[in-house]
C-alpha cells in the first residue's frame, strides 16, 4: 500500500499548492514544494542497498478488478534508478525554479501543480508493471508536459510548441496503446513481468511484429527520435526549469525506459535490433549535426538532447544482440551498461547546462548566441559549471562523459564483429557514423560554451546589464557539475549501485544477480585502445572544425526550408485543419430543417436496412386484442390533430392541434392500462402547452415560405420512410418471440428483491437506475444549454447597448 | 392590454396547494402505486407554471426565491451520491437497500434508498423544467 502511495504523493501534495500560494504570500511556494521530491528521493534512496543486491519490490493496488486493471509499483534496478532521477533531479529543479521564477509576477500555483502532476505521472510510468496503467501515466506525462510548455500561454510560440509536443507524443502514445493491447491478446496478461517470462513463445505469434513496431513508435515519439524529434526544439518555449527537468532529464527518457523495459520481450526479433540501433544512430548524427545550426542556447541543448537520446537508444539496440545466442561476445555486454551509465551521466551534465542556459537568459535577457560573448569574467561561476558540463558532453576527461563515450565506442566497434542479422555487411557503418557524430558533438559543446563565455563582450546587444547569478540559482547546477566530476573518479561505485541492477533488468536471462556482471569501468586501460585513438581523432578534427566554424556554418543556410520535417508537420496540420473545416461546412448549414433531414433519413436508412439485411421483419397475428370502437375514435382524432398541426396557417392553431395529439396519446395509455405513462404524458403535455404560450409572444409570425409550403419529393420520401420504419419495428417487436420477455422476471422479483410494488417506477429507480441517472444528467445538460444560449445572447445585446 | 384575472388568481391560490400536495403524494407513493419522482417533479413544476400564468414571473420569483440551477445541481448530486454510496461499504455501484419499519402515526412502512435516488430525479425535473420556463419567459 505504502509503495503505491509514494507514486501519488506529488499529486496529493498538488492539492495544497494553490492554498499555500494564496495564503502565504511572503514565502516562495517552491520552498514547500521542494519537500515533496526531496522526501521521496530519501525514501527511494533507502531501497538502493537491497535493490543493488538483486532484490525487487512489488506492490499492487486493485483499481478496476473486474477488468483486471490495477496500479502496480514494481521497484527493480531499472525503475529505482529512474525513480531516483525523477525525485533527485526534481528536487534540484524545484530549488532552481525558486530563484528562476519570480514569486510576485509568475503564476506559481499553476506551475507547481503541473510539475507535481508530472512527477506522479513519471513515477507511475517507470514503476508500473501493468500495461494499461503504464499507458495511463504515459499520457499523463504528455498532458503535464503540454501544460508546462504552455505555461506562458500568452505567447504564441508557447502554445504552438505545447500543441506540437502534445500532437506528436500523444499520437505515439496511442500507437503504443495499440501495441500493448496486441501484447495482451498474445500473452493473455497485462503484467510486463509475466510477459517477459512468456517471451520465447510470443515470437512466433503473427501479431508480434505489429506490436513491436507500435510500441517502438510510442517510445520514439516520446524520446524525440528521428523523424519525430521536431517537437523537442519547440518545447524549449517552456520555462528553463521545465526544459532541464522534463525535456532533458526525465520525460524524454521515458521512451528509453520503455525500450529498456521491453528489451527482454522483443530483443529476440531481428527487426527490433535493427530499428532501435539504426534509428538511434541516425538520430545521434542528425541531432549533433543540426545542433551547430542553432543560434538559441536552449535550441543547441535541445538538439544535443535529441542526439544524446539517439546515442542511448542505439546502445539499447546493440544490447539486444546479447539475446541472439551464439554471437554474444564479451564486448557487447558493454552496450547495456554503457546505455544506463550514459543515461545517468547525461542527466547530470545536461541538467547543469540547461540551468546555465537559464541563468544566462535570466541575467542578460537573451539566449541568442550571436549577441552573447565574453561573459567569462562577469559570470565566472556559471562559466565554470558550463565548461564542466560541456567538456563532459564532448567526451573529455576528467569528466563522466568521457567514460560513457568510450564505452559507447567500444560497443559500436563490437557491432562490426557480428556475423549475423546482416551485421557482417552493415556493421562497419556504425562505428564510422558514431565517430562522425561524436566530432559534431564535440564541436557543438565547444560552440555552446565558448561562444557564450569567451570572445568579444557585446554589452550594447544585451537587454540587461549582466552580472553573476544569485547563489541560490547556482546551487543546483553546481551540485550537478560536482557529480559530473565525482562520477569520473568513482565510476565503479556508481556502476555497482545503480547501473548493474538496471542492466540486470534489461538482460534478465544473462545474469542471476547484479553482482555477476563483470564490467569494470576504467579511464585508462593500460594500453592504447582503438577507442582512445578514436577519441584523439575526435578532439583533433573537432578542434579544427570548431576553429573553422564561421567558414562552414553557412552550409546550414543552403538546406531548402521546404524540405524540412518541421515544414512537413506544418503542412499536415494546416491541411487537416482546412480540409476538415471544409468537410464540416459541407453539411453544417445552420438550418434546423437540414439537420432533421439528416437525422431522420439516416435513422430510417439504418433501421430499415438492418431489418432487411438481418431478415428480421416478422408479423404474427397471435396475441392480438380486438379493436374496439374507442380506439377507432382515438385514431381518427389523432389523425385530424396531426393534419391540423401540419397544415395550420397560424401558430396558435398548430399548438392546439399538437396538444390534441398529445392528450389523445395519453388517452391511449389510459385505455391500455398504463396509468404511469398516461399520467406523465398528461403532465408533459400540459407543461409544454404552457411553455408554448410563454414563448408564443416572442415567436415571429409564420413566414410566407411556411404559409405556402410547396410539395417537396425528398422530404415526402423521408417522412414516409420514417413512418414505415416505426410501423415495421412496432410490428416486429410485437411479433418476435425468440427471447421470452423480461416482464416475468420483474413480476417475480419486484416485491422480494426490489421492495416495491409499481414495476414501472422500480424499473426507473432500481432495475435500470443507470439509465435514469444518465437521463437526468442529459436533462440537466439540456437545461443548462438553454439557459446558456439565451443568457449569452442577452449579454451580447447588452454589450451592443454599451457600445452605443 | 389590461386583463381581469381575479378569478384565476383566486383559484390558483387554492389549486396550487392541491396540485403541489398531490405531486408530493404521487412522488412518495410511486414505489407501490402509479407515480414516482419524474411525474411528481413534473406535477410540481406544473403547479408553479400555473402560478406563473396566473400572476407573473417576478411575483412568483418573490414568493418562491429558488435558484433552479442550484436545485438541478443538488438533485443530480443527490442521485449520484445515492448511487455511489454502496461503493464505500463494499457493494457494487447502485445497490439499493430497503427495510420495513414501524413508524409512529404512519404504521408499518418501508424505507428505501431508491426513494433518495428518486428525490434526486424529482429535484432535477423541477429544476430543469423551471429553468427552461423561467429563461424563456424572461427573455424579452
TrEMBL record, chain B:
This chain belongs to the protein called Monovalent cation/H+ antiporter subunit B
Cellular component aspect of the GO annotation: plasma membrane
- Provide the transmembrane region boundaries: 12-32, 38-57, 69-89, 109-133
Q: Which family does it belong to?
A: Belongs to the CPA3 antiporters (TC 2.A.63) subunit B family.
Enumerate the UniProt keywords alphabetically: Cell membrane, Membrane, Transmembrane, Transmembrane helix
Per UniProt, subcellular location reads as:
Cell membrane
Keyword Nucleus set for record: no
| Na+/H+ antiporter MnhB subunit-related protein domain residues | 7-131
- Key word rRNA-binding present in the record? no
The cross-references to Pfam families, in alphabetical order and at most eight, read:
MnhB
Q: How does the protein associate with the membrane?
A: Multi-pass membrane protein
